[in-house]
Design a protein that fits this description.
- By secondary structure, this protein is of the alpha+beta class.
- The strands form 2 sheets. Strands 2-1-5-4-3 form a 5-stranded antiparallel β-sheet. A two-stranded antiparallel sheet has the order 6-7.
- The radius of gyration is 26 Å and the shape is elongated.
Length: 352
């Protein structure tokens, strides 16, 4: 099996950054701003799908020559129903309903056996576009891949290479010295895997986090992945803002983590939001959430409501003074009349 490097991410990073550059303050770019035929970088590896006529059988408005050649197709393919089932193009279009539902770019990666009989590693991204600024009725996809030879063929190639090195003086190949680990097509050379992998983009991390959450929404792994995404969103504020806009979400400044939880889990989870906010206030680092959660015994379950009689008022929140009775309980003494700024700070610190 070929050792997979990390440079294949670069094409999808560029494609995602290009999509963000077309937003112009909108939750989704307008289709009129896209010209796939004029994109020399990743245009050959792309496809544009038109859903204005319905979601059942989208029209293929553009198909890059690299994808067309890999699929063994010609210009007669104009609809999704005509896409060969074991082509890379079929793998790209399998995800279109997710994009329409989420209204945000989604990346994906997998391995499958192509129509030539060789295993293929591929990574793709689908990005939504709109004809009117509201409806998601176009999707633009970019995919990159690498064919992998089976073990017997690879062993034979390795033996021939060893013999060639023994009998000849190797010469440095300028192509191998600069080629990316993944090709823009199946026949490009493979460069050595870098010693250190670059950090994934926020879009890639969103996809990976959602996969972990979908597998087990209430598991420690899901919460740990969500917390790492929270830290990553602080590093890429612009990318995170674009994701929220694409998902139709707005941040409540009094409870910003709740918005992130909605983006990741799809529905509100106040207990999750409070736990993640608590870890953030504690300064828990990336990759440290699971250990911190185990050490502190924190749980994502919602805090039970306790009704305490206080003087009536119109404020949504009040500050109470409590006295510690023992290690496990407190005694509510009464309400503290605090100014609005103090109350807002307390509410934010508690993750509400």
């Amino acid at each position: 099996m070929v050792s997979v490097g990390t440079d294949e991410r670069r094409m999808h990073v560029r494609a995602y950054n290009y999509w963000v550059s077309l937003l112009q303050g909108r939750p989704c770019p307008l289709i009129e701003s896209l010209d796939p035929a004029g994109i020399a970088d990743f245009g050959p590896n792309s496809v544009l799908l038109d859903f204005t006529g319905g979601q059942d059988d989208a029209e293929i408005r553009f198909l890059g020559h690299a994808l067309r050649e890999e699929s063994g197709t010609d210009s007669s393919i104009v609809r999704l129903s005509q896409v060969p089932s074991r082509s890379l193009l079929s793998r790209l279009t399998d995800h279109y309903l997710q994009i329409i539902a989420n209204r945000a770019p989604i990346g994906f990666e997998a391995e499958f056996v192509g129509h030539r009989g060789f295993p293929m590693l591929y990574r793709g991204i689908l990005m939504p576009f709109s004809s009117d600024g509201e409806a998601i009725d176009y999707l633009y996809g970019v995919i990159n891949w690498k064919e992998v030879v089976d073990a017997s063929v690879q062993s034979q190639l390795a033996a021939e290479l060893t013999e060639a090195r023994r009998t000849t003086t190797p010469r440095r190949s300028p192509v191998l010295a600069t080629a990316a680990a993944w090709a823009d097509g199946p026949s490009a050379p493979i460069a050595p895997t870098p010693a250190a992998a670059p950090a994934p983009t926020l879009a890639e991390q969103l996809v990976a986090t959602r996969r972990t959450i979908e597998a087990a929404p209430a598991s420690p792994d899901a919460l740990a992945a969500a917390y790492d995404f929270l830290i990553a969103s602080d590093r890429d504020a612009a990318g995170y803002a674009a994701m929220l806009a694409g998902a139709g979400l707005t941040v409540d400044p009094r409870a910003p983590v709740e918005t992130l939880v909605r983006l990741l889990f799809g529905t509100p989870h106040e207990g999750h939001a409070r736990l993640l906010a608590r870890a953030q206030r504690a300064g828990v680092g990336e990759g440290e959430f699971a250990e911190w959660n185990e050490r502190t015994g924190a749980r994502p379950a919602a805090t039970p409501n306790v009704v305490v009689p206080v003087a009536p008022g119109d404020e949504p929140y009040v500050v109470l003074l409590a006295r510690a009775v023992d290690a496990g309980s407190v005694e509510i003494i009464g309400r503290v009349h605090a100014d609005a700024a103090f109350v807002e700070t307390a509410v934010r610190d508690l993750g509400y």
